[in-house]
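Dear colleagues,

As part of the handover before I leave the project, I'm documenting each prediction I ran so the next person doesn't have to rerun anything. This entry is a single chain, and its sequence is reproduced below.
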Amino acid sequence: MKPYILIFLSVILTQLSAQTENKTSSDYNNLKGNSNIYDYQKVDIKPEFPGGIDKFKLFIAQNTKYPAKAREKKKEGKVYISFIIDKEGKVSHIKLFIRANKHLNREALRVANLIPNWTAGKINNRPVKVQYILPFNFKLNKKKVSHTKI
């Protein structure tokens, strides 16, 4: 029996290490017009995707497709996308933070650009801009399909 390649896309919704988070926060604070951007972990009330984090995971999983060219070349990797959730809950400043294969990078950016508005994060009950980092883990899972003869 021929080996069958199952595609497994794992989207992990975690933050990077504190060192990386501090670096990205300072990167954004240096962008023109983007001062006072807070780290996701450091706000009183975190930004919320419509329906909560489980709906966000579902949204990402349903909208992400393993790129055919990456699959053909057996390319795997992690892509980290950073974005800002502004005071109105709009997603902006979407960019690649950590890159992988160009096809995987494009797919992660494509999906990130589909993300709808959130409920804004707050500090002292006031809406603030919040940085979010979204990792995409693209992995091909190779398994053999076996059939039992009867």
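Helices lie at 18-29, 53-63, 68-72, 102-112. Residues 18-29 form the longest helix (12 residues).

All the best with the project,
I.
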